[in-house]
Amino acid sequence: MAGLLEIVTRFFSELWLRSEPSRNSGFLIQSRHGRKGNFELVLPSQLGGAKHCWRDNDTEDLSWNGPNFFGSSDITATSLIQSNFGNSELGHLEVVALSGQDLYHYWRSDEQPYSWFGPTWIASGAAGNPALIQSRFGDKGNFELVFPRVDGGLAHYWRDNDDAALRWVGPSIFGESVGVIEGVALIQSNFGTPGNLEVIANVQSGFPHWLAHFWRESDPPFRWSSPTQIPLGDALPSPGTQPGLIQSRHGDRGNFEVVYVTKGSLAHLWRDNDDAALPWIRPTRFGTGEFRGVSVIQSNFGKSIFRTREGNLEVAAIEGGQGRGRAAIYWRQGEAPWQWSDRTASVCDEPTCDSTTEGEWRVRYTSRIVGIHAALLRTGRVLFYTYREEDKDNGESSVLDPVTGDLTRLPLDRDPFCAGQTMLADGRVLVAGGSGGSSVRSLHTFSPAGAAGAWQYLGDMADGRWYPTCTTLPDGRVFIVGGSGGGGGPAVSPEDCSVADKASVNATYEVFDPRAGLGPPQPAPILSASAPYSLYPFVFVLPSGKLLIHSGNRTRFLDLGTWTFDALELRTLSPTARTYPSQGSCVLLPLLPDSRIPYHARVMVIGGAGVSCPERATLTTSATNKCEILDLEATPLAWGPAAAMTHSRVMPDAVLLPDGTVLVVGGSSTGVADAAISPVFQAELYQPADDSWTTLCSMRVARLYHATALLLPDGRVLTAGGGEEFNAPPFEMPEYRVEVFSPPYLFRGPRPFISSAPSSMAYDRPYTIGTREAASIASAALVAPGAVTHSFNMNQRYAGLVISGRVDGQSIEVISPPNSRIAPPGWYMLFLLSNAGVPSLAEFVHLG
């Protein structure tokens, strides 16, 4: 009998524990995850985007977990629910976030690995926090959204969840007569059928602030009421803060419970819904501190099966300025004497890095398209381009100003997705090839001139090129090599990695002259020999006047004087290919004038897949952390070992920094190319001077296949792309977030300031650069703007400058690179670096 009683008790106990949590429109909920129901909390992140933390209510210590990060740009307010969308009994987490004056929708899958998706734009003109619920309107239950408007009053939108298109409808405007509304909370009550919408708003109408109650009738014509002022005594709401509202289980009808921020504390009041007069009971203060917003729920903690206790009120209050802090947690017991706790915890802290030694990441912007290709323009803006998501026969591009965050979208009539790109000497971006159809042979330029720039179609190449490489030559022409002729990779045998159809391997190169056009295709035998790795080969102009071409695990040299290939072929120490689809990264290390051998050339390959034949790799096959260096002055000429990274990475990005170091970011520790699911978040820094690696701060956004990274003129590094449909689950969704890394050198003291610089330089000439810090300038360099895709930056290059003199403490004299083999003609970023290694803001200079 005791056993049966225990089973029955457990059954009803678990049924009670999994009862539907209170509906509210804040940033704290009790979800259906876990037996007891976990607490879920979503807040703005201090470094951009949003963060999600959760409390495991099935553990004895009620431990908080996270944060996990998602969302793009500067999110300042969030509203969270758990919906009935999803493939399980749990339901998605749904978030509406405020960024600037725009509202965006994100959602998190209810199944492992619990990936976040979004953003989807909803509306503009928001002036305060959004309030989101899923109502009882419609068969599925519509989403209801209310927010303060820039133009005054409140706006109500709703999403028709019975419509397959999930359209947002609105706005309905109300509350315009009350003054400026700065914060809002929303519920659906049990007044009316299926229930009125009820709103509490923090109103500024002169001074002081006050709380207004609005309600919308549940029957057509769905009119919103005039506001009712809630009596608060001297506990007035603080300016710019967000209130919290629920309908609790207290009373037969269910009381309205309001928690809000007042000066130096929080305050709670409630409306007695069993009293016909619906009186508000004056507020009780609790907690201490300065808060930006509050969210309240009624949990199942303290709840009795026999309804002698109704469950605790649980409160999360955002600490810190600008709505970006952690959350203070309070609770009130679910029975008399209704005592509020002291602060039980401050939760959802963010992991911090020592910026002076590890740098700092911030999710700053959105690209609005997946940044599969990225190029830094001579204007300082960044060009992104890819296929058009809704029409893959055409392309899409956007131009981001990383100073202001302004973004302009520009359509394309062809699809340059998976093209090669580099910079022409006049500053235009040359784009060769694309993805299938007519695009695979197309040639385009993008001009940075004008308000946003413009695309121009130049005609077609002789051969199709999908995944080619483009390299600017010393004479200003462009070397275009490799790729696949049909807009898709060659079919490869998993037994021996052989190519069934070698005709699909484009083992040729073409040379583009900006004045005369394209020359005829010429054979590139290394690509036939290294098939199927003829895609995105690594190519560099060497100071010797030769081209280094690396494909698979083979290296050949093309003499630009005779246009013949040397007989010499080198192999990397590792038999595993470093080019696509086993992609690592590759850089020409900085060319320095003051080395033992001036402008000593060394090429470094970094990471890559861990298997010789990628067709045999699985999602869990380990990548490699090994690196190799080819010293072009060594005898005999051969690839040699370099220090290994801390983390194994396939598809990483490598960026040359102004101080001559190499930053490596992103990639996966397992898999190959588009079959990788183990993102590496920690950045690493390579120091060529002593062949060493240093681990740095971890990024927030996974950067796997189709990610990009490049240097900005202010010395930061921009990362974008990845996470779109060519990735393996759960990363097969568009990734629009743009994250920016500030390396440690930006936290080591003031920047040098360039007061004057030449707009152009010829080769091997002296030039004066004005700077107030002339006495403390340690070095100067020209760094080519990046043009990157698929883990290879085809245009980045670093040429150090000789400092030949200092004048009156107000300027320095530098000697430009000796010839175009050291630095091919084009636009460069001119950096000065202090004795502490801090770079100046760059000035763009035209060389040649």
Features:
848 residues, mainly beta, eight-stranded mixed beta sheet, six-stranded antiparallel beta sheet, 3 helices
Structure overview:
The protein is mainly β. Helix content is about 5%, strand content about 40%. An 8-stranded mixed beta sheet has the order 55-57-62-61-58-63-64-56, with no helix packed on it. A 6-stranded antiparallel beta sheet has the order 29-28-27-26-59-60, with no helix packed on it. A hairpin with a 5-residue loop joins strand 2 and strand 3.
Number of strands: 64
N/C terminus separation: 94 Å
Assign a percent range to the helix content. Answer: under 10%
- Our Rg estimate from Cα atoms comes to 30 Å
Indicate the structural class. Answer: mainly beta
